[in-house]
Amino acid sequence: MAANWLLLDGSSLMFRAFFGIPVGTFKAPDGQPVNAVRGFLDMLARLVSDRKPKALVVATDEDWRPAFRVKVIASYKTARLERGAMPAELQPQEPIIWAILNAIGVEVMGAAGFEAEDVIASLLPKITGTVEIVTGDRD
């Protein structure tokens, strides 16, 4: 049975799309890499086609290392501090992905100071029916 709701951790899927398709494989007419855009949209199309949800929400990280979490676990995502939060080639692709989702009517939600999984967790008590959560995160 298909889930009524499909909740996606958009930020983690965006990173997977970026690292899953080499930079330079797909470029916009101006030469800007769009590998993450292509990969994300391909994943989304496959998920919707396979799962056939009645509702879809894409949650985003508005803070990839929230202060409240670092206060509890000082080492939270410290490896990212050393290598940088987001690769330079991915940064301009993020707003393109969210804009495309908005343009096609997909709800994109984020909350200042929180990660996508926090947004997803806050939605669960408000949802009736079955839910499937899709994320690439392992934490």
Descriptive notes:
The chain is 42% helix and 12% strand. By secondary structure, the protein is α/β, with parallel strands linked by helices. The chain has one domain (5-134): Rossmann fold (3-Layer(aba) Sandwich). It has a four-stranded parallel beta sheet with strand order 3-2-1-4. α1 (10-20) packs across α2 (35-51). The longest helix is centred in the N-terminal third of the chain and has 17 residues, at 35-51. It is globular, with a radius of gyration of 16 Å.
In short:
The protein has 139 residues and is α/β, with parallel strands linked by helices. It has helices at 10-20, 35-51, 67-72, 78-83, 93-103, 116-123, and strands at residues 5-9, 55-59, 107-109, 131-134.
Blueprint of the fold:
Blueprint lengths: L4 E5 H11 L14 H17 L3 E5 L7 H6 L5 H6 L9 H11 L3 E3 L6 H8 L7 E4 L5
Parallel strand pairs: 1-2, 1-4, 2-3
List the defining traits of the structure above.
139 residues; alpha/beta; Rossmann fold; 4-stranded parallel sheet; 42% helix
Tell me about the largest β-sheet: 4 strands, parallel
CATH A-level architecture: 3-Layer(aba) Sandwich
What is the β-strand count? 4
How many H/I helical runs?
6
The helix/strand class is: alpha/beta
Residue share in β-strands: 5-15%
Assembly status:
single chain
Binned, the helix content reads 40-55%
CATH class: Alpha Beta
CATH level-3 fold name: Rossmann fold
Order of helices and strands: EHHEHHHEHE
